[in-house]
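Exercise 7. Predict the joint structure of the components listed below.
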Amino acid sequence: MVTETITAMDPSGLKAIGAGIAVGLTGLASALAERDIGSAAIGAMAENESLFGKGLILTVIPETIVIFGLVVALLIK
Amino acid sequence: MLEPKQMSRAVIVGHKSIFEETVDALHKANLFQIEDFNEDESGLRIGRPFENVDEVSKKLIKIRSIASLLGVKDVVSKKQDKKSVLSALDDTLNKLDAELDVKAEQKSKLEAELKEIDSLKKELIPFANISLDFDLYHGYEHLSVFSGYVKEDVGAAVSRITSSYEIFYDAKESTMVLFVTKDKAAEVADLLAGFAFRELRIPNISGMPSESLSRITSKESGLLKQVEAIDAEIESLKDKYAEFILASNEVLSIEAQKSETPLKVATSDSTFIIDGWVPEEDYAELERIVKAATNGRAFVSKQEMTKKDQKIVPIEYNNSKMTAPFQEIMDLYARPTYKELDPTALLFISFPLFYGMILGDIGYALILLAMAIGIKKAISSDAIKPLMNILIYCQISTLIFGVLYGEFLGFPLASLHTEHGVTEGLIKGFETVNLLASPVGDEMITFPVHRTHLVMTMIIATALVGFIHINIGYLLGFINENRKHGISAAIFEKGSWFVIEIGLILAILGYAAVLPSVTTILGVVVFLIGLVMLLKGEGIKGPIELPSLLSNSLSYTRIIAVGLSSIYIASTVNLIAFEMIWEPGTPIGGTTIFAIIVFLLGHGLNTALSIIAPGLHSLRLQYVEFFGKFYEGGGRKYDPFGYIRKYTEE
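Solution:
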């Protein structure tokens, strides 16, 4: 006799996975963008130290990506 | 308050006989920014430096080289009288220079000796374990001496060639000394080559190696002590002369600056013309000072500011003492231009506001407040002070929001009602008060606001705060544009955004059935009108920027997102320390201490993050979202001719 087992997925687990993917991938994306900006900013700062402020701000700009990811994760919760 | 200081272009004209007096007075007043003169067709020439310039700069170079040699740093010291510094300058400088010369010479001599000893030591070490007087290594008629590194003991191999040999081998250093008769020397050399023999130079001294080694080691330590003694003497020279060096550096720098002033000024055979800028409010003072210094023989006149001048006029902030620290943040970005609004006073409100909204924790606020006040007291540096003032403002705001959020180091102060029951807060009996149902996300707005349980509401609220902030930016942009290019440019470039926003709001409200459905159509019409205006104002660039309206507002949700991440770090630390490691109520023991360590380290880390993350994100909201709407910047810093004396006084 053939039996059929039904496996139910716990929705809260799926939500957690979704939230994890949202934060994880956007974190990676931010990191990739910030890597390039950061190294360029340090290069610029080596030439002219007064660019520190601008470099710092430019480095934070791609953080928006991961912030959006975080917000999405919070919404999923 | 929202504008930089009004500036006046002033020209000072006089006879050359009063040139020095005028420059002296201007330098003392520290009000007037001299505009460099470029030679042109007018026949005027750049002036010649005053006579004493060579001597002054020679002394200045000497002082500065001594200062860098001694490593003199800024110290807080009593101001010295300029005249007494000047009169003592030559003698003291020569004395100091001579003393330093002697010391430097002694030191370099000792260092040369040390170097010699070091190389001798290197030669000696391989022979240290071979007890053979160095005199025995040479001076033979019928014997050849091989001395050097070799792979292994070659005694057995040599004995196969000749029996008349003597070998000393030290396995530890792999050094060998081999004596053979001259006739067998060539054969032995061939043999040694097979054992990777490498010849070593024999030190040019006599005596046993080990004795010589210990002798020169003790000599070396003696020399090192002498070098240390000289270093200490140089250090004491530094302590003794630091004030003199700083004071005379200052006096000489001022003299040099004054003597070189004519290089920036237009002169003819008998007159000089100094052109430059002075804040409007100080013009009368400038006139008075110049007149007083020259008995009214120099003539000061105000010039009409031309369009071209407006591009080069130096910018001086005009802020109250309270808001002035935020000028540092402005300078980090760019100074405003002359016709532009200076948003420093707005930063004074919005920067701490966002910082406080993000951090919002009583515990961290108190820690950082104490830290900022402590650093401000301890360090008198002019660069640190404004930053600490900003930090203090931010912590006051954090404290207010901390009370509003009811958080202390990640612990909720009030009790927390969730579907799993009631969790008691840090303060026993402090009940959360339900205020009203939030329109979004089926949440209840309470006091204190539990951010972790009001996520949806907070996201909407922060986006709204952002919307307001951005619109203040557009409003400022409107004012700026009006001043620069007139009212019609302002309406089309910046005003169109308001029209678009109103259209969008009407359409959404109509669609959501808050208002009758006619408003949807009305909203779309208003939106389209706005779009056309924007196209006229900014061209194709305008509509491309349209989505930024949404993304910029959403960007403000970082206020809650970054805030939550900080709460989660803090409460995780608390969880690890107080529930996983040590359960409160259980006996106090080793685990308690471990829990305390975890607690301190975790919150230490989070405190450091609490300066960086909210600070940077609050700053970014100002620079990117807010400034993007109105601010251009690029003004030149007002840098008056003069000097702020730190170590001397007239």
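Discussion. Chain A touches chain B through 16 residues (CB under 8 Å).
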